[in-house]
Amino acid sequence: MPYPLSSDVSSGQPTAHQHYNNLRADALRLGQSEVDSATLGALLARFEHGLSLEYLDTNRLRVPASPAAPAVLVINGCMLTAAANVDLSAGSAPSGAAALYYVFAVRSPGSTTFTLDINTSEAESANTRRIGRFFWDGSALVRASITTETAVFSAGLLGYSTPQTCSGRLSLVSASPQPANTTGGTLYFTPFQGNRAALYAPGYGWRAYPFSEISLSLAGRAADKNFDVFLAPAGGALGLELLQWSNDATRAVDLAWLDGVLVKNTDPSRRYLGTLRTSAAGECADEPGRRYLYNHHNRLPCRLFRGDSTTHTYASTTRRYWNNDSSLWIGLILGQEQTLWMTLDAQTRLTTGSAYSDVQLVLGEPASGSGLVAVVNLAATNLRAGNSVLAELPAGFSKISLTEMAGSSTTMSNAFAAASLLAWM
């Protein structure tokens, strides 16, 4: 059918019923018959344009709008427009227990704009239209969870899911994601190969945040303690949280896998970033002898080293620190079990007796720890030798001691020993 069906009417000309019907068909169905076309009202019943939701405050959000960029939608057949920001009122703000809330645009008779309301029910009532949703965690609106119904529909249509990316590394040096040979009293989570990190919002799913460097002071943290580090929502942005372990080897709260991502077992909105150990009160070390900062994401190779070249003799079957120097050990913190490459290099000889000299890396204290890698000499001549192994270390704090002992009735002369480890931190 041609459009429009109706034509101009001359002054004084009577309006026939067909002309009226043509006018009606033009207005309702673009001139089409009712058996061939739905009405424009039905087509536009769910129309919206320029409508988005943004975080406003701890418990409030807004529909941004301006004369140049109005928010337009239809409610109950009424075409409404907002040319200024539409904010959720303080009286309508969420409260109480954690819950998923739905956001509604509300039409009032006699008005061509709309207001906002929220409800834990997704059902639309008279003069309301559901336009979005967010998660309330019991104390604050989770910024990452704010989304429109259009975005939810589009994501489902495209089969899209938010990448669970985490483009950052823990560091003790501001703006430096690379491992550093330093100690520090401030922990940083700094961008690395990107600047986005995804958090899980209960009731919504994963949401990616852009971020710049985040920091947390270690002041008040006792010495020689393990802490898990979590990325967490913080007042609409991102923050760092620490959780102390029960002891050197046992977490106070376990980690859990969620969609292939490690999170805090009791609160999946907290994403696991790594583990640190304090080297002194309010301080952490990341240096060759003490690697106390473990990254779960974007790990890089880190060398650990301890050695000594003081010539000395030893004639006991009791294992002790090399040259009786209790500083000759390596400290390492791991958030998860890891296989490390270990190399031990030593130069020794027998000066009396015919048993052996034994230089060894021991996990734990010299007298009670378990051996990891050893260099043994059976000769009276100087022998410099090395030995390398792959050794599996558990999650938690590991102390790796550089030790020595002599065989029965044997004196050994030791000139040099060095331990080198490669860990991914």
Describe the structure.
The chain has 425 residues and is mostly beta strands. It has three domains: 111 residues, Tail fiber receptor-binding protein (Trefoil); 114 residues, no CATH class; 123 residues, Sandwich (Jelly Rolls). It is built from three helices and 34 strands. The longest helix has 13 residues. The termini are far apart.
Strand composition percent: over 45%
Q: Which range best describes the helical content: under 10%, 10-25%, 25-40%, 40-55%, 55-70% or over 70%?
A: under 10%
Can you summarize the main beta sheet?
14 strands, mixed
Number of domains: 3
Average pLDDT figure? 92
Radius of gyration (CA) equals 35 Å
User: Would you give the CATH topology of the largest domain?
Assistant: Jelly Rolls
What low-confidence regions span 5 or more consecutive residues with pLDDT below 50?
none
Gross CATH architecture of the largest domain: Sandwich
Spatial separation of the terminal alpha carbons: 72 Å
Count of beta strands: 34
User: Which secondary-structure class do the elements indicate?
Assistant: mainly beta
